[in-house]
Every structure is written in C-alpha cells, then in structure tokens.
Design goal:
The structure is a homodimer. In chain A, the strands form 3 sheets. Chain A has a 7-stranded mixed beta sheet with strand order 9-11-8-12-10-13-14. A 4-stranded mixed beta sheet of chain A has the order 2-7-5-6, covered by helices on one side. In chain A, strands 3-4 form a two-stranded antiparallel sheet. In chain A, about 30% of the residues lie in helices and about 25% in strands. Chain A is globular, with a radius of gyration of 21 Å. Chain A has helices at about 30-45, 95-105, 125-145, 200-210, 225-235, 245-260, 275-285, 300-315, and strands at about 60, 75-80, 85-90, 90, 110-120, 145-155, 165-175, 190-195, 240, 260-265, 295-300, 320-330, 335-340, 345. Strand 2 of chain A pairs antiparallel with strand 1 of chain B, so a sheet runs across the interface.
C-alpha cells in the first residue's frame, strides 16, 4: 500500500472514525457524523483538485481537456456494483467500481477523466472494511488516471445492502475524429478478444460456493483505457465492448444486433484458462457467457487488424489477444459459432440469470 | 398522465414484460430478460436523442451547449436515493431521484442537462411498481428539462434493497461569469430561504409512523433550476444550497464553515407550516433540522436582495421566500439563532441520525 497516501491503517490516535467500529445510521444523516466520514475518509483518500469544492455539485473546467474552438464530445456512463462477496481473489467491489466505469468510457474510445461515487452503506458494516475498499478505489483511480470528483453517502438498515453497494458514473472526452460505437461493424471486419474469457465470474463464484482449485482463479479486473489508447494509435477500430455480464456471447449478440450484421466465430479460438474450463464443467456453465472485468471484444477493418493486434500484445492487458471471428453478410443480427467438433450452432443471448451479483 | 408518452398502464397484449409480474434475478443478468426491460420500459419511458446509442457510454456533443471558443465549465454531481416508503404524499423515489440531482446542479448556478440513472432492484419488486416509478421519473425529467442519457440495472436478492434504490448523477453547464459556491458568503450578505421548512421529512415520516393530520403534509419535492435561473437574472448570488438532509441547520453550518464567516438568523422568521410544527412537537424533532426536497437557502449581497426576493416570489417554488438572517464578522464558522423568546443560541450541526431514509 502506498505509504504517502492516507491510509485507514495508518490513522493515529485519536483515530477520527474509530469511535464507531461500524457504520451506524447517523453516518448517512447529513450531520456531524457524516461530515466526519467525508473529512477523515473520503476526502483524504480521493484527494484531487476538484473534490475539495464541497458544493452540491463539482465544477469542472473543460478548457484544459478540449482544444478550443472545438467544444468537444463527452462520453457519460453509469454503473452500480453489488458484487457478493465484497472481496474476492484478484479484486474487490471498490476496484471493480472504478474499473467498470473507466472501461465503459474507454469502449467509446473516450479518455476517462472524472468519476462520481455513490455509496449505499449498510448499518453494521465494519469501518475498516469501508476504509480498505475506499483506499483500494483511490489506488484504482491512480492506476486508471481518473479522479473521483463528487460523491454521496447513504446508510440503510442492517440487512438492506449486503454490506455496501457502490454506484460510479464517469465522464470522458472522445478525441476528435474517433467514432467507435456498437453499430459500426461491417461485413469483412474481424473480431478480436483481448484475452482469456470467464475469469472474473468464476473467481467470484468459486469463493461463493467454496470451490478450490490447484491454481487459484483470479478476477481479471483491470482498467482498459490504456490498452484502448494503444489500439487506437495503431489503427482504425469500429466497435469495442468490455465483456462483462453475459460474457462474450452477450457482447457478440449486442454488436450483431446494433450493426444489423452477422457474426461468425471459432469456438476453438477463444482463449479460456484450463481451470476456468474445469470449473465451468463442474458448475454447468458456458465460459463464453461468464462475466469478465478486464477483457474487451473489438471489431475492426481487416486491414488494420495486424497492427492493432500487435499493439495489443505488447500491452499488459492484451498479451493473449487473438482473432476469433469475422463479420459476415449472412444472418444479420445473429451469431454463429463454428464448434470444436466441426459443426455450427446459433449462439443466442442467454435468457436470464447465470451468475447473480458478480459485479 | 401524458397520453402521448409510453405508459406501463397502456401496454397492450402481449404485454412485453408481464410474463414476469415481479422483478426476478434474471432481469439483471445481462441477457434477454434484461434487454426486454431496457427495450420495453426504460428506453420508451426516457426516450431522447441520446439514450438510443446503446453503447457502454453515451456520447454527448457539447457544441450545442457551449458557444465556442469557450470550452466552458461543467457541473457534475451524484446522489443515491433509498427513501422508504417508495411512495409518499407529494412524491415518490423516482421523482426525488430526478429533482435531487437537478437541484444539486442548480445550486452551483448550472443549467442541468444530462442525467444517468442506476437502478438497484430487489427481486420480487412488482413490475408495475417499477413501471410507475420509471414513468414518474420520465415526467420529472420533462418538468425539469433534463434527459436521462445513460442507465444501468442490477438485481439483488429479496430483502436486500427495500424494493429499489436509485442513483442519479448529473451534468450541467455553468454559464460564463457565474460563480456561486459555498465559500462565497461575505459579512454583510443576507440569508434567504425559498419557503417553508421541514415538509419533505415530515411527509415521509408521517407515512412511516402512521401519523395523520387534518391537513395532509405533502413533500415539497420540486425541481429548483427554474427558480435559480430567475434569481440569477435578477441579481448577484453568492451561495445556494438546497436544504436536504440535516435541513436548514446543516446548510447554514456548512456555508458558515466553507466561507469562514458567522451566520445569524431569526428563528421567528423561518417559515414552517403549522401542521409540520405540530408533527415535530409530537415526534420531538426540530423542523429546522428536517430535510426538504424543494427548498433552497441563498446568501447574497444586500444590494441585490430586493430584486432577487421579488423574482423568487413570482416563481411557483418561491412564493414564500423570505429573509431570515445575515452573514456577520463575529464567530466565523458558527451559526447563532435569535430565539423566539428573545435569547441567542448556538445552532450546531446535528450529530447523527434524525430521520433515516427520507431521501
């Protein structure tokens, strides 16, 4: 942990929040106790030039982000995080809340800048748990190069929020000329994934059901904005999507539908860790429908693929990047897999619940 | 209800979501069921030019909002809503979620434009309840002149979210030259409130404890951006704050602290409805510490007060606006009330919980 930064573990006596070993209703009531939580936890942890304004909203000067006369194009997104348990191999809810929103901005080709954080805390949540999650969010912000500039805290009665829920919303700037969107796939384009599929969902599920493997399955939770920036510099990209809830299968279906194009892919080309395959067989899941939190699917013109793929492979979050399929004229809106045993199957959007509360 | 707009009550057979009379876990899983909820409820209800993009984040063209070459100043805020019960006299959680964030933007002098909505739904929530809340959010957006441009849905197990929680974040544009902030109060300034104090908190609490009065106490839940715009046109304003959690007392303390100035006010000048006074006496509350959802506190130079007050009184949400006090050189950071019986008392930030889950 960064020694220079505020750290709940480093609080010296009198430890400002330790009169209350757990969150109580008063921490959300708008009075002195909530002010203490803000002053001694959120503000020092998330410290940045914008957060200290203490207004009802935070004022952001865009002139540092845009080159006038271009008023520019913003990307805006929101995501709530309800993952259970709060800590899992490879990450925790706070890190996920930062990276999830950073990635949603990056999938538009935007450079993420500003995040909001809305905490719904359950009465009885240990103060130390909250402290550790907040500190890990702050570290995730530094890693992704974003700032939490506005926040809110509510407290609900015991049993009403599984410990805590976090919402983050994010603002990014889409550089001039960048046009990446789900409707841009064209027949002839190639389909790439940035790495192994299913790690996050299976990591969370393994903890929940008490599965253990020789090799621990860790969440792939990571900020993808740096990877996307290298990809953009290397060549043209039509669509990007991080493969979260519903996994690869959901993303391919959404992109095929939005672009009114068909997508075909080789099941055997999709990278899956052997331990994830094993867990999926045991639990009856399809790894291609399992959530990831640090993997993206890209669709791009054939001619830029070589350069973009090379750029991905030199990036820490794209070392296993690979081409898995192509966009076709046939069956618009549908996704077809060439199966391992040589057949073809329609890969439809999963209906409903696979793994609840994995993000 | 607006007949032209989509309405869950107007769904014709086959009613697209009515296979599921209640929310089930699958509605949050990223598959077909979640796609149905988005397609048949959220998108038609919140319909606007930006929402249909269906990307991971929404792209917003600022050139329509700014006059180049000014790149401009944004306001950004977030708020989670956990009010219980979901419906109360004068409003519901959906309306509150829209107005709360609109008001936080307006308190910076910003014109609110774009909202995000993050829903955390509890398994078992009746589909019709969700439908009615969403429709009422859509109506609130029209009334406030804002658009929900990005959204997210999560579903958690029964008993984990009191029906539903909603987070909204908002983006507004601060017009050039506007500088309204909590640190701007100066000795000699006057302090105004826009109307009666305590209505919202007591309205919610009355339902919860089963109190009934001859005159029903209704929430004052309302969008204040129009009121603020008239105030801004009428004269200079130093500070604005909506008196939500912690009520007038919390706001005055926060402004006194942020501006390092003293504030003095006349208790007898603060407007409180007689039925709110009666309820507070019965429940042992101070109406000046009770949350409002459609009232603001303003601090402004003496010379602009007359014009601003006149503008407020002609606006539907400011008819009862009144001067209650002044900013003084003495006791910086502290708030003193001249009491009804002729004494003085220090009015400190309430410590912790007064009324839980009123917003």
């Amino acid at each position: 942990m960064d020694k220079e930064k505020p750290n709940i573990l480093g609080w010296t006596c009198p430890r400002p929040l330790m009169n209350y070993p757990t969150i109580v209703m008063g921490h959300g009531a708008g009075g002195k106790m909530m002010a203490d939580l803000i002053e001694h936890l959120f503000v020092p942890a998330f410290h940045n030039p914008w957060l200290g304004q203490m207004g009802d909203s935070t004022s952001l000067d865009l002139s540092t982000l845009f080159q006038p006369p271009s008023a520019g194009q913003l990307a805006f997104t929101t995501d709530s995080f309800v993952v259970s348990p709060l800590f899992f191999p490879g990450g925790n809810i706070g890190e996920l809340a930062v990276y999830g929103t950073v990635n949603d901005l990056a999938m538009r080709g935007a450079n993420p800048h500003f995040l909001s954080a809305g905490f719904i805390l359950e009465e009885g949540l240990p103060m130390e748990t909250l402290g550790n999650i907040v500190i890990s969010m702050a570290a995730a912000c530094r890693k992704a190069g974003v700032s939490i500039v506005t926040a809110d805290t509510k407290v609900v009665q015991k049993g009403s929020a599984g410990g805590l829920f976090i919402n983050t919303s994010g603002i990014g700037v889409i550089p001039e000329g960048v046009d990446i969107g789900p409707a841009n796939a064209r027949p002839g384009d190639l389909v790439l994934v940035s790495g192994t599929m299913g790690d996050h969902g299976i990591a969370v599920m393994s903890v929940r059901v008490g599965l253990s493997f020789e090799t621990e399955i860790r969440s792939d939770s990571a900020p993808l904005n740096g990877l996307v920036e290298s990809m953009r510099s290397a060549g043209e990209i039509h669509c990007l999507r991080d493969a979260t809830r519903g996994g690869l299968v959901a993303v391919l279906n959404e992109l095929a539908a939005a672009s009114s194009a068909g997508i075909e892919f080789e099941e055997s080309s999709v990278p899956v860790r052997p331990e994830v395959t094993a867990a999926c067989e045991m639990l009856g899941f399809d790894p291609l429908s399992i959530a990831n939190e640090g993997k993206l699917v890209a669709i791009l013109p054939r001619e830029s693929t070589e350069a973009v793929l090379a750029a991905m492979r030199t990036h820490e979050y794209g070392t296993n990047a690979v081409i898995i399929g192509r966009v076709v004229n046939d069956h618009p809106g549908r996704v077809i897999a060439n199966t391992v045993i040589g057949g073809k199957r329609v890969v439809d959007l999963p209906a409903g619940e696979l793994l609840p509360r994995i993000c």
